[in-house]
Specification:
Blueprint (H helix, E strand, L loop, with lengths): L4 E2 L5 H22 L7 E2 L10 E3 L6 E9 L1 H24 L3 E6 L5 H14 L7 E4 L9 H13 L1 E7 L5 E3 L14 H16 L5 E9 L21 E6 L10 E5 L5 E5 L7 E3 L16
Parallel strand pairs: 4-9, 5-8, 9-10
Antiparallel strand pairs: 1-4, 2-3, 3-4, 5-7, 6-7, 10-11, 11-12, 12-13
Helix pairs in contact: 2-3, 3-4
Length: 294
Amino acid sequence: MPESRIVRHRSDVAWLAWSQRAEYIEEEVARYDGRNLGVRTRRDGTGGLRVDFTYDVAAPPVAMEITALVEPDVRALGAELLKFEAELQEIVSSEHLGAWLLGIRVGVSVRRLRQPLVALLRRHRGRSGVALFAADEAPEDLTDGDLRLLAELFDLGLASAMRSDEGDELSIFPPIGNAQEGDDGFSTLLRTAMAANVDKLREARPRETHLVVTLDRSGLSPDPVRTPAPELPDGIDVLWILLGYFNAKWTYGLWRTTAGDRRWHLLRHPLGKPPVVYPPTASHDQQILKVRPD
């Protein structure tokens, strides 16, 4: 199994990634809890705090630490993909090309992928509904030219693309390894991440403390049966898991558990399925979580 590391030192580009993940969590807290965390303040050593961010106007105030369990070759590609994503987002927004979710393989040459990928986005400007473009599935109405373009993109490192007509946005998921989806859980990796970050979160007390763990590695199962919700150590109130695209291609990509709960709240599904609680321990837990209206 490839080496996994906990990211600790961050360049300006990496801080952009961390800020995007923090913004994502803020949106989910607002969506599912009806709670606005307010202004985010970057810390990471300033103001006597080592956590990444604080939200001191929230009620109660919040401290957030973000970390990533990554494979080295995945991390190397991540910064380049952030810039590529911003470039593609500008094209999609200005030309009204629909909403796209893209999976890119580790080892891809962004320079070689750029032109044919933009061509794919533009070819399907007028398509309605949800369409998947992958090696094992694609719309039935594709022309020979469409199919040749897809084959070229797969050779260049595109793993899959999904388009919908709900807005004009584009996201590139964390890079995908070439291994098949595995059956391994990641409980030990979570324990490692919590142990590495709990002290700095304790220092941020009496704030409510959130640890966000991004899992950017292939070969791990997205089934919560394989990774039961852990008992959170003193110092961590809320644990969030952001699964990479390879891990959560067709299932819940955002998990949350809280101190004393020992259940996962599975909150974000790529196909729009409602949130669920796992494992359901009582009849009311079997009901879907209520999503507050935007």
